[in-house]
Design goal:
mainly alpha
Length: about 230
Amino acid sequence: MSDTMVQIVRRVLLPVSVLFGVMVLLGVLVTRVFARTWPFTVEDAVNRELAADRTGEWNNVSLVFSTLASTQMIVVVTVLVALALRLWLKRWREPLFLCAAVTAQALVFLLTTIAIDRRRPAVEHMDVSPPTSSFPSGHTSAAVALYVGIAVLMALRARSTGAKVAWWALLLVPLGVALTRMYRGMHHPSDVVASFLNGGTCVAIMARAVLDRSVRWGRAKLPSVRRPAMPSPS
């Protein structure tokens, strides 16, 4: 294998595969092993309470946050931000990091929902989605990967402490998405908690693989060495 392929396997494929295994394990624990154990026994009560407190105003707010993490919006924002980063920084490292983090979380989410067949909360669902794709929350995972990924990139570029803190305010987006996905009856609390693990870990994996400048992708070229001239025969 080439050095590049070794780095891809070690720093991307292997960590993402481990994350997928952890997510499936968590899904099994939540839905089967500890399903009748606190705090999982009170999840339905939390969803019923949120559904009972619905109002027209909060319905609109929840729709905004839910839309910010919809598949279409995530794809559009990721592409636009990646292009803007490419034009601004004149390199591919940062755009590649963001796209890789969003793609990795989507892959782990999709495979986990196939492995873990969890029904959505027993309340009125405000959105249309497959009934057995509750664990984990795709909206929340995507929001964490995208908006936390942007915060990481911009905080690293910010020169003042105030600017760094301001960019980290993007964390409010995935938090809002998590709350509204439960409010809209689409996910249990443990679904969104697991999604923070998925999205956050994918950001960390890709930051280590792509943003770490000490990582050497491919074989470094050795400096050429001039051989001393051979003395001519006398």
